[in-house]
Specification:
By secondary structure, the protein is α/β, with parallel strands linked by helices. The chain folds into two domains: 124 residues, D-Maltodextrin-Binding Protein, domain 2; 97 residues, D-Maltodextrin-Binding Protein, domain 2 (3-Layer(aba) Sandwich). It contains ten helices and eleven strands.
Amino acid sequence: MTLKILCSTAFHAAMPEILENFQQQTKMNCDVSFGTSVAIVEKCHQGEQADLVILTQSGIDSLLNQQFLQTDHLTVFTKTGVGIAALSNNPAYDISNKENFINTILRCQSIGFTKHGASGMFFARLIKQLGIEEQIRPKALIPEGGLVGELVKSGQVELGVQLVSEILAVKGITLLGFIPEELQEWSSFSIAKTKHSLTKEADLLIDLLKTSQIQTRLPSYGFISEAKISSVQD
C-alpha cells in the first residue's frame, strides 16, 4: 500500500527527511506530489484522490469549505515567512529594515516571484500597498509556481521572493534573510486527512510531524517549529 500526499512546494527540501523517518517506522511507501496551495486545491476540486494534504491556511480553509477534509485530524505544525534570494550576499542587498528593503528591490535589475504561490500573491499585494507596483512589474518574471530560487541560480532574475523554506531548497544561491517584520506575512502549514483516507498510517505521519525529532529539524529547512509558533506575531 502507498500513502498518497499532496504537499505544498514549501516542503520540497524537508519532505525527504520527514518521509525517511516515517518509512523507517512503518515500512510504508509514500507518493508525494508538490505544488502551490492554489494548484493542489484545484486538483482536489477536480477529483484527485489523496490520503493527506499539507497546505497553507488558505488552502486548508478552501478544502474545509468543500468538505474535502476530516476535521478531527487537522493539525497546524509549523510556519515560515517570506525571504529574498540572490546569487551572492552583495552588501548592496540590504533588507534589514523597511526603507532599505524597498530601495533594494527598486534598484535590482530583475526580480522573480510566483503568480499562484502564497509568497508570490503576498508580494504582489505588498508592492501595490507600498506604491511601487509600476516600478517592479516591468522587471518581474512571474511563473505560475515552482522554486523561484532556480530562476536566481540560472541568472534569469537578480533577486527572488519566496517562502524561506523554498529558497533553502535550491543549492547554490544565498538567502539574504526574511523581509522586515513590519512587512512580513507568516504562512502557517497544516496537515490533514482527506475524507477518502481510511489508513491508520496517515495518522502516524501526522503524529510524527509533532514529535521533537521532526520539530527540532524544521528550522534548518526555514521553518519555525511548533513550539515557537505562539511567540511569532501574525
